[in-house]
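Lab notebook, bench 4. We co-purified these components, and the gel suggests they stay together. Before we commit to crystallization screens, I want a quick structural picture of the whole thing.
Request: model the full complex, all chains together.
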Amino acid sequence: GENVEQHPSTLSVQEGDSAVIKCTYSDSASNYFPWYKQELGKGPQLIIDIRSNVGEKKDQRIAVTLNKTAKHFSLHITETQPEDSAVYFCAASWPGNQFYFGTGTSLTVIP
Amino acid sequence: DSGVTQTPKHLITATGQRVTLRCSPRSGDLSVYWYQQSLDQGLQFLIQYYNGEERAKGNILERFSAQQFPDLHSELNLSSLELGDSALYFCASSVEGGSARGYTFGSGTRLTVV
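Here is the predicted assembly.
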């Protein structure tokens, strides 16, 4: 089955700096890669996703890049704010299948 | 409100007992997924139902079972509970197999076994 690895497990940045979280996947059949943000005591929320026919996608301060050849994808958050502090999960999937999640990155933005 | 409703929000029970967690998917979503999240752990896939039928199983213990009813709500039954079953249990729903768009997660049920 699919195996998704996520790094780093914890990340601290100063407010205003950028944060990058990286994930790798093993199954070349995966073609959909969502990112989730989980705040304390809440369920994960989808923040951005990318499909395999696209190399990069942006949504305001958040961007995701995908390298299909290398089987890795990354989340980039620019101009970080304290409210970006949360646990972020990457995932990989293909049609009709469950999501395989990474182990999560705990991001702390220091004011 | 994500549109996925999970009840109860909190549950405290004793070892050896049985509990039922309930999930109502977002309107129009046919797939329901159950995940377990233990302290400092990631999201462990338990089981998926699609339109009433079991579609995939993950690392679900034999003491756990689930079903999806004709109205598409789902229940996760946990029996012979052990201390190690204490965790957050999330339900998520999607329109189809999951790759059309991301799952929508509920807010979870926090189970504490004492």
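Chain B has a mean pLDDT of 92. Worth comparing against the SEC data before the next meeting. Chain B has no helices and eleven strands.
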